Amino acid sequence: GGGAPVPPLSANPTKPAAFVFDIDGVLVRGPAVLPAARTAMQMLLSGGAWRAPVCFLTNGGGVSEARKAEELTSWLGVEVGEDQVILSHSPFRQLAPRLGDVPVLVAGRRDVVAVARSYGFSKVLTTYHLAEAFGRAATPFGAAPLTDAPKGATRSGGPCPVRDLGWGSEAAPIRAVLVFNDPAGDAWYQDLQLLHDVITSHGVPLRPHPAPETAAALLNRAPPGSRPVEVFFSNPDLLWANDHPRPRFGQGAFAAALDALHRQTTGGPISGARWFGKPNREPYRLAERLLLAQAVRLGLAPPSVAEDAAAAASGGNGGGGAAARFSAIYAVGDNPAADVRGANTAGPPWVSVLVRTGVFEGREANSATDPAHIVVDDVAAAVEAARHRER
Ligand code: G3P
Ligand code: MG
């Protein structure tokens, strides 16, 4: 109880309900799988009484959707497929048709280089490549250790893309910075320094520097005809919940630091920075499409093109009619600023369900800043509340 008024159920009783689960702070905390997560999944995914489309929507990443599905399968004890997983960087795939053939700088840990290539980016650079090509003076307080580098970020015998192929030169400027997930701790300094270089130099980080060094010089140094670098963040979370008692800094904290430095050196924010990841709309639209495909596969929704077209024409909520095919989409999350705000902004039939096992764990009845439709103790109680409501 104590939640914001829950939107009315659809008048059409034949529509199925669907679920979207956040991962950190809902299903796991650090390496620990929450017992309620297994209970919840047994209710939904073990061929039990209630069949409903399910997706997992996280602001985490660094691995492929298929790899995360394998992790979820082993954590939860139920089969999870890659078409049920939306990671913070999953929406970056849609940028590849435009940016797939130009040098892009990818930041993050684990498998981000391989993931970027699999999305269709063919000229992937990391700050490890830049640090290697530029030498010690580029990161005078120390480069990040190569052991922290994402796989494939270091040259193994092949040409250095910066030195030997000229990526990041006047002839082949870096067109975009894509922050796939949080840089490793030791890479924060390297990434802040080198991303700032790439952004303020319009993608040519060794471009000769105007003297004297002033904020105005940095702001105005881009030669006529050069293009600003496009900057994409995949996860705005300032905070997230692992197994430490207090919330930890997330990618949003890294972005805030980069933006603060940019403001101080140039006098203005990073222009044209774009944000994907919850609470932004892209992952919700992706979830609606994946849920509908599942509903059709499960025989819970007819594969009716006509109905889709009608729903799309009537405006719907911008999801191409996919959302309108559900009585409710329960978005279960722990972070009011990400999960609740995202579901509330997505609009009906999305129903925000806030649990107390992660970022939000206080005794207050609801989040003061982003009140959820439903507030319960944990993810098992969330599924129970939804079942009660759908009956
Ligand atoms: O780095 C992951 C974190 O910011 C949020 O993960 O699963 O709670 O969206 P999640
Ligand atoms: Mg979470």
Automatic annotation (TrEMBL):
GO CC, sorted alphabetically, is: mitochondrion
What SUPFAM superfamilies does the record tag this protein with?
HAD-like
Q: Which InterPro entries match?
A: CDP-alcohol_PTase-I, HAD-like_sf, HAD-SF_hydro_IIA, HAD-SF_hydro_IIA_CECR5, HAD_sf
Extract the Gene3D superfamilies matched here: HAD superfamily/HAD-like
Name a biological process GO annotation: glycerophospholipid biosynthetic process
Protein name in UniProt: Uncharacterized protein
Q: Which organism is it from?
A: Monoraphidium neglectum
